[in-house]
Specification:
There is one protein chain. By secondary structure, the protein is an alpha+beta fold. The protein folds into 2 domains: about 40 residues, no CATH class; about 160 residues, GAF domain (Beta-Lactamase), CATH 3.30.450. The chain is about 25% helix and about 20% strand. The strands form 2 sheets. Strands 5-4-3-8-7-6 form a 6-stranded antiparallel β-sheet, with helices on both faces. A two-stranded parallel ribbon has the order 1-2. Helix 1 links the parallel strand 1 and strand 2. The longest helix has 17 residues. The relative contact order is 0.16.
Length: about 210
């Protein structure tokens, strides 16, 4: 199996990782392992190579993900599993607010337990804990709405290592006051986020203590 991506050390590392990722998650389900399958990484995912760099921060990772998925960086949530709790790495203002027990009914907890990607294009109607949506970042502009716009659309994907152990959860959302004016996520978007989660599994952000 071969993978085409851009040149450079980060891209080479990304190629090698995704080559393994596809072998583990795609070829194992192919009854004919003798078939050579060519995987071409979509151009929109090439910036993900930067999340593998040493010293990368959760903010930098979230900025890259926001660019890739065409959302605001405040619509990205990155959580790491530690001792049965999903702790926020991003948004930064939620890092000290609290954590999500994987035994709870939160969407992120369900994603971690099921190890399955989920997409919700009617998220406002889904029963969920909205407490984290209402917390504003310190230093928010005074002319901003008293309450942040609620999440209308959401993708939630587990971050798994090579042993399929859950490292965390990545969520991409679209917020708005009216779901009619908030674009749906597609199955292609969800597939891209699964690939992104595979890359994040090798990122120093998820491996750091």
């Amino acid at each position: 199996m071969s993978l085409q991506a851009s040149s450079g050390a980060q891209s080479a590392r990304l190629q090698a990782f995704l080559n393994w990722f596809f072998c583990e998650h795609s070829m194992t389900h192919n009854p004919d392992h003798g078939v050579t399958e060519e995987i071409i990484l979509p151009d929109n995912l090439l910036p993900l190579g930067s999340v593998l760099g040493e010293g990368v921060t959760p903010l930098e990772v979230s900025m890259v993900l926001a660019k890739v998925f065409k959302v605001q960086y405040a619509e990205v949530a990155l959580l790491r599993l530690e001792g049965g709790l999903l702790k926020f790495l991003f948004p930064e203002h939620l890092r000290t607010t609290g954590a999500i027990p994987i035994s709870s009914k939160a969407v992120a907890a369900h994603t971690a337990l099921s190890k399955k990607a989920e997409i919700f294009n009617n998220f406002a109607r889904v029963k969920h804990a909205s407490i984290f949506e209402t917390i504003k970042a310190v230093g928010s502009e005074a002319d901003e709405p008293a309450q942040p716009a609620p999440i209308q659309k959401l993708m939630s994907v587990p971050i798994l290592d090579h042993k399929l152990t859950v490292l965390g959860v990545i969520q991409i959302s679209r917020k708005g006051l009216d779901p009619r004016f908030t674009q749906d996520f597609s199955r292609e978007d969800l597939h891209d986020l699964e690939l992104a989660a595979g890359v994040l599994a090798a990122s120093p952000v998820m491996l750091a203590n």
